[in-house]
Design goal:
The structure is a single chain. Strands 1-2 form a two-stranded antiparallel sheet. It has helices at 9-28, 30-37, 43-62, 74-92, 94-99, 105-116, 132-147, 149-156, 164-171, 184-208, 213-224, 241-254, 258-265, 269-273, 276-299, 304-319, 334-343, 359-377, 394-420, 425-436, 457-471, 475-478; strands at residues 386-387, 390-391. The N and C termini lie close together (9 Å). The protein has 22 helices and 2 strands. The relative contact order is 0.10. α15 (276-299) packs across α16 (304-319). β1 and β2 form a beta hairpin. The chain is an all-alpha fold.
């Protein structure tokens, strides 16, 4: 902001232009698969998409004067990030739309923002009929969105400097950058380095299980981003138990804070094992898996290993908000798939690629509720909520409570809007929580073997907005709708 307190539109436009040129570079990678698979009909729409993104980005970047980007304010950071994610989705939809694979632009936008926000909600009815180069772009939107395209830009381009901290915080709410390194660019490099390493290892392990390189890479992109886009119509159901277990392991890893991965690589095992959010995250997965395994084994008379694998896979997939499926959990007894629905209100660890409420918020809210009961019995006692042995400041608890309340209000509001668009109650609440939590598959007509193609046009735009809200954790986007945000 300048001395008058005004938001510097020229600076925002310049940075938007730089990020759009990065987007053009990302789309260009799809051309490699065009030539590999001989999909020559896609050369023209991809080149047009790349040209539009790059030229628009270049115009915005070079026609605006250099400004002091090192002193970005929080307001400017929130505005840049929200506009960037929206414009990425608007322009990232061009390959689908111009190629005619998704001829309706609303559908192309929905598929794209679902990819970038790592939601995994799809309007495609026959995924295997989509050209390979576009399937790669579809998975690439997941991979870029998982860690964040702005974090990637911070890692590879020095232009943002220390001003990038505001963008980092706005794009990755709740992540404390200085846990890894005091310099934001070094932090971004470490995050993307770990992200790339895990993606590489998973790709190799999937190939060892008989999956070819293309499908292995695409599924690794979707897994590490906790996105859920598969290259197969039946998601992961048709693959071997080995493949499913590999994906389970890396979904769990993707749902863990990348700060913990960094500490693990540094050999700081005590720090990792002592993290209470991580222990709670693994405990939730273990408890739900155990209950579902026993119930499916007894009630559905499935083999023990199959019952365990399906229970573990769906528990991890929903808890981490990945959204892969190996079975239609809606065919389970109602009380069992209701447990899956409850898992949709959890999420990965904070600082992971998982969406949802996040485990740390759930844990703190549970502890705060328990302590409120003690405070009623001992009104004069000072009993703080503790995490990792430290008292949590009251303002953090207040923030968590406000986030939870707003999250629930948006969930019910989204469900009400979806019922107004003609969805039945079950499908409406499923679509609302699945998009707000960046999960993808839900219940009802948007369940694990269904898609979002039948949602009316207006409903798709509402759900697209919910996906963006969920990815940027509500406040980053909603602040822009506050009159106070625009005051000098």
């Amino acid at each position: 902001m300048d001395q008058s307190g005004s938001i510097r539109i020229g600076l925002i436009a310049k940075l938007q232009g730089m990020l759009l040129m990065v987007l053009a570079s990302a789309i260009s990678l799809s051309l490699l698969w065009v030539f590999h698979y001989g999909e020559s009909t896609l050369i023209r729409p991809l080149l047009i998409s790349i040209t539009i993104c790059f030229c628009l980005g270049a115009v915005l970047f070079f026609t605006n004067k250099p400004a002091d980007h090192k002193n970005l304010t929080p307001k400017e950071g929130y505005l840049i990030v929200t506009l960037m994610w929206f414009s990425m989705s608007l322009l990232g939809a061009l390959p689908y739309y111009l190629s005619g694979v998704i001829p309706v632009y609303t559908d192309a936008f929905f598929e794209t923002i679902s990819g970038f926000t790592t939601t995994g909600a799809s309007i495609l009815t026959d995924i295997e009929a989509v050209p390979k180069s576009l399937l790669f772009w579809r998975s690439m939107t997941h991979w870029l969105g998982g860690m964040g395209i702005i974090v990637l830009t911070l890692a590879i381009l020095p232009i943002l400097g220390v001003g990038g901290m505001q963008l980092f915080i706005a794009e990755s709410p709740g992540t404390t950058a200085n846990k890894l390194h005091p310099h934001i660019r070094s932090t971004a490099r470490r995050l993307w380095g770990i992200y790339f390493l895990l993606t590489f290892i998973q790709t190799l392990l999937l190939m060892l299980g008989g999956m070819d390189f293309f499908h292995s890479l695409n599924h690794a992109f979707s897994t590490m981003a906790t996105g859920g886009f598969s290259t197969q119509n039946d998601s992961i159901a048709g693959y071997s138990p080995y493949i499913q277990y590999v994906i389970i392991f890396f979904m769990i890893m993707a749902g863990i804070s990348f700060a913990q991965h960094y500490f693990l690589l540094k050999g700081q095992f005590r720090k990792v094992l002592g993290n209470e959010e991580l222990r709670f995250y693994l405990s939730v997965i273990g408890l739900f898996t155990l209950v579902l395994t026993l119930a499916i084994f007894i009630l559905h008379q499935a083999g023990l290993e199959k019952a365990f694998r399906d229970s573990l896979f769906q528990t991890v997939s929903i808890a981490t908000t990945t959204g892969f499926v190996t079975t239609n959990y809606l065919e389970w007894r109602g009380s069992l798939w209701f447990l899956i629905f409850l898992l949709m209100f959890t999420g990965g660890c904070i600082g992971s690629t998982g969406g949802g409420l996040k485990m740390i918020r759930v844990l703190v809210l549970i502890r705060n509720t328990r302590l409120e009961l003690k405070r009623l019995l001992h009104p004069m006692a000072v009993i703080p909520v503790r995490l990792d042995g430290k008292a949590i400041p009251q303002e953090i608890i207040t923030n968590f409570l406000a986030f939870f309340l707003l999250y629930i209000l948006l969930f019910f509001g989204g469900a009400a809007i979806m019922t107004a668009y003609g969805l039945d109650f079950t499908s409406a609440i499923g679509a609302s929580i699945a998009t707000l939590g960046n999960i993808g598959p839900a219940i009802g007509s948007v369940g694990p073997v269904e898609n979002y193609a039948h949602i009316p046009t207006g409903g798709k735009w509402v759900l697209s907005f919910f996906m963006l809200l969920g990815r940027l954790e509500l406040f980053t986007v909603l602040l822009l709708f506050s009159p106070a945000f625009w005051k000098k």
